Amino acid sequence: MRLPLMLFCLAAWAVSSAQDTLRLRLAEAEALLQERSLALLAQRCEVDAATALHVQARLFTNPSVGLEWGIPPRPAQLFEAGQPEREFAVHAEKLFRIAGQRALAMRAASLRITFSEAQYAELAAALRYQLHTALYRQFFLGRAVDAVASQLGVLKNIVDSYGAQLEKGNVSLRDVARLRTSFFELNSGKVELERELHALQEQLGILLAEERYIAFSPDAGDLLALRALPADLPGLVAGAMASRPALQASKAGLAATEAELELERRNTAPDLMLGVAYDRYGNVWRDYAGITAGLSIPLFDRNQARTALAKAAVRQQQAVLELERNTVRAEVERAYRDLVSLQQQYTSTSMGLAGQLDQLSESLIDNYVKSNLKLIEFTDLFESYTRSIIAINVLEADLQSAYAGLEQAAGQKLFGR
Fold first, then answer.
1. Which of 139, 164, 282 is nearest to 222 (CA)?
2. What is the reported pLDDT for 221?
3. Distances from the Cα of 154 to the Cαs of 317, 353, 362, in angstroms?
4. How far apart are CA 406 and CA 325, in angstroms?
């Protein structure tokens, strides 16, 4: 009876563990980011707000309607004001903006929509870069932690064995201290990696609005360490100037502020007020009907302050656009050079090293047991092996992050993933 019960408990535990872990491929993680990201949701509200302002700019001004009753000279006749023989008047007026302000307001609002959409695209690209970096770093650091943990298990057995031999007086305290020091240093490195993995898991949980543990399951093509660069540096800079959402947002922002400046200038033009009026028993004849017309005269308030404010906004946006151009150019150049340096480092020092380290790991313990290695040689080689394993995985994580960084800086997908 116990065996079936144990098997049932193990199966239930396995199902529970699987439900607590969300395994994602790269495309699935990106889709989840697009769907769940609270940062993107907040930015989408900015787009919706700009769209609402565009709808408002399209609307015409409302007409005004007024009624008038004559008040009798004697209080006793106050309630007779609505009688047919008493005075009654009605008038309706409509404001017409005759300097093209409505069309300009619509254009400025439309440009604000373009500005908000470009900001949304820039944020989406930045979050995609953060997601790629976190996923790849989690994957490679996790692989390094597993490798180090395996080696530390072997080293722990040796340390325990030497500790037992120390009590019997068969080995020196110096040798035991040497082994324990190596174990402590390597284990400290592993703990630091685990702490970074915890931080990455926190970042992924925030990015994807997910409470479960997120595990990256990349396809084979996603792990290519060396990818061909699609263009030279000037070509990448030119492409970024044309397609980077941050630049598109700055250009739209400048065009919008220029339209808003022209709108403020035109707001100084007189507005035309047209209307109709009807008056019973209160004018030159019993049922009087007339047409009213009027102009607002910008004698004192000529919109000086708002025009000056709009001019300052244009100058500010011009500076922002130029700053954005310089920033984008610098980001592309830095991302490109970083990627080239990492590729050169990987090509010159890391290709084939992982396999050689695996061979070293297999022979290291065997050679030490056979007394082909002294203790100090063993610990030095063991520490070098462990640090190299960590360095290789960090380099591969940095490479994948550099690919995503160049795509984000250039504003386009370059590596087909």
1. 139
2. 84
3. 62, 21, 11
4. 16
Do the strands 213-216 and 272-280 form a parallel or antiparallel pair, or are they unpaired? unpaired
Q: Which of 227, 229, 223 is CA-nearest to residue 354?
A: 223
Distance CA 328, CA 70 (A): 71
In tens, the pLDDT along 94-147 reads 988 888 899 999 999 999 999 999 999 999 999 999 999 999 999 999 999 998
Span 62-96+269-302: which CATH code?
A: 2.20.200
CA distance 173 to 2: 48
Distance of alpha carbon 294 from alpha carbon 51, whole angstroms: 34
CATH superfamily of 24-58+103-253+308-410: Outer membrane efflux proteins (OEP) (1.20.1600.10)
Asked whether residue 373 carries a pLDDT value surpassing 80, the answer given is no
Mean pLDDT of all residues in 281-285: 73
Q: Does the global pTM surpass 0.85?
A: no
List of long-range contacts for 190-195, beta carbons under 8 Å, 24+ apart: 190/145, 190/148, 190/149, 190/152, 193/141, 193/144, 193/145, 193/148, 193/390, 194/145
